[in-house]
Amino acid sequence: MDSEAERFFQEGKAAERQGDMMRAVMMYKKAERLGHDLLDAHERLSADEQEESDAMAQEWVSAGVCAKEDEQEDTPYLTEDQRAALERYPHALDYKFSEDELKQLDRDGYVVLKGLISPEVCERLLSECFEKLHRLYGLDKAKPETWKALGSGFSDVWHTPAYYAIRQDPRLYSVFAQLLKEPRLTLGLDRMSIKPPAYVDIPALDTAEWNPVLEDEPDHAPSSSSEGVFERRAEPRRVEYKLNELPIHTDMNLWRLRESMYQGGLALQDCPKGNGGFVCLPGAHKLASIMQYREKFEAGHWHASDPSKTKKQSPPSDVFNWYLDPEGAKNAIEVPMAQGDFVVWSSRLPHCNALNQLPQWRVQCFVRHMPEHTHQAYRRMVERSVRTGIKPNAYSTGGGVDMWNAGHEQAGYSPPDLSPLGRLLMGADPWST
User: Fold this and answer.
1) What is the rounded CA–CA span in Å between residue 177 and residue 210?
2) What is the pTM of this model?
């Protein structure tokens, strides 16, 4: 390992511990350019783990490949035979979709299931998440100078008791069993999205006080609590803290449509419009829309590496892809949600999250289930992660997870209490054939 690469890596880790995510990312990128894998020696995958990681990558490729003539529309409707097959499995039909919910999901590619999870469970997860972020990264909701620990807006919290209670909720399992037409599922082990308020109002002061928010950088929180100014404020003032939105994308390669996949997000507190919530392009999951997008992409209408170019290009090979059509993006809508609402969408649907413009937090946890027979390597990884508290080394949507802090949640970790359904979903018990 290059000594210079290792030095940059260690500087990145130090900045991460201090909550200075901007410097951490810069150091990590320097280390990566010099060939560093961004892992400590004890965090690197063993030969068996690397083989499993390679198998997971292959699963994502194989799951979607099919001939164009075999491509079919995603439909949420069950045939009589599909319903009869699901009836054999406890809880597979627990959730009763309304006709309006099915119509919207079929037409738009997404639907909000109102009040699916109780406010009490949502509040428990909120409390557990912020407690863990404070313990691991020093994040304090009352101190904007600590919010840089959130980085890109996705929290590195994967394991809490309330999160596991939600993951094995029979109604959520039922939603995915019906949409996938498959009762034997494996949990998609995901994390949370947390966006701080867009701004903080600082009151006037009659006496001088240390202010940790820098005067010359009003739109950024400082990298440590030692930065700031000693000031007396005659008037109140507003400090902005805006975390960028994630651009429109799909977590499914639109050239690989053999397997139907769905994703979901749970609002842990009210998320009105403007709060940085779920955004999508209604109807863009339809096969005709996808085929038109693919045709224009391959013809070079929006060149992936240089938008000024118009030349033919090959389909992307990655599972995750940015949505490049600027005209199509104009149809994006932001979907308001109340605490406990669950939004479920087809993985074919271009989506993102918006910029938070309100003075309140936006917190959502992601939950999904996938067919276990096509994701066996991923299922083994989930079982190990749930049992040990280590980070999963792959996202449920495909692609590797940064493992520089692989064991950061393991201190004091106890495996969750799993119901019989939870044991099936998380790989502790096998599904019957």
Assistant:
1) 55
2) 0.81
